[in-house]
Amino acid sequence: MITALLIIHGLVAVALLGAITHQTLAVWIPARTHSGSFFDRFRAAPPASFANAIVVLYASSAILGAFVYFYFRVDVMPALERTRRWEALGLLELKEHFAAIGLALLPAYWVCWRQPQVDKCARARAALTAVFGFIVWWAFLVGHVLNNIMGFGS
Amino acid sequence: MTSPPWFRRFAFAYGPVFAVLYVIALMRDLALFTVYPSLRIVLPGTHHSADIVSPSIAFAIPAMYWYGWSATAALGALVVGVVAAFLPERWTQRFSSAWLWVVPVAAMAACIYHTMPWFRLAKILSP
């Protein structure tokens, strides 16, 4: 059961990672021309179209993560403490702090993306998107590293 | 399509206030409740395992504070957000939208500072 939840958490995180990366690049370094390169096509996607999906995926991922974390604390964390993986525990602690702050920012992020494109919220919208991009990448990489330390099913 | 003005005021207050309160809850250890996952119990307030059982066996009863810190911050931010939702538009227009991201980024930096002992521990105790 918990393994299935962890896999679903990972799959949701992959979808979220793709969406936020598209949006962040489209906002910060938008494609000027419709050339045929992969990178140009990647950032040519309309960023506003990702906002609702990112809100749903982030909230889903956070809820799943909060549930998985309950079991992680009992089954995995003591083993990390015994093997003195202090840096891994520190990275995880940062992940949980960043994830909580990001979850609380979701309403503001959603409101910013529902405003007309040209308004005084534009800078905050771009900055919030970058903050979300950082949080999602951090959470994904740390989760991946922690999973690799213990190994699947260990 | 835009969101209702009251929701905009709520959302713009909720996020930054949550970030500030989360850091305060973290630094001051103010969890609304403490979860003991191995015992499957939840106690109101902040409790440390060593306070309720012998310190020699406290390590066997891990406590979780993250849910409690988040709840503390969420409750405080909810109150401020609801108050902000009822404020007149002209009052809230004085606040720059830059606070939306400056405050959370500062809060994240504070979290990094708070987490540094884990990395110092790794350096001290590494063979």
What report would you give on this structure?
The complex is a heterodimer of chains A (154) and B (127). Chain A is mostly helical and 154 residues long. Chain A has six helices and no strands. In chain A, helix 1 (2-28) runs antiparallel to helix 6 and helix 3 runs antiparallel to helix 5. Chain B is mainly alpha-helical and 127 residues long. Helix content of chain B is 63%, strand content 6%. In chain B, strands 1-2 form a two-stranded antiparallel sheet. In chain B, helix 1 packs antiparallel against helix 3 and helix 1 packs parallel to helix 5. The longest helix of chain B has 27 residues, at 99-125. Chains A and B meet through helix 3, helix 4, helix 5 and helix 6 of A and helix 1, helix 3 and helix 5 of B.
Secondary-structure blueprint:
The complex is a heterodimer of chains A (154) and B (127).
Chain A: H1 2-28, H2 38-43, H3 51-75, H4 77-82, H5 86-114, H6 122-150
Chain B: H1 5-28, E1 33-36, E2 41-44, H2 49-52, H3 66-86, H4 89-92, H5 99-125
Antiparallel strand pairs in B: 1-2
Helix pairs in contact in B: 1-3, 1-5
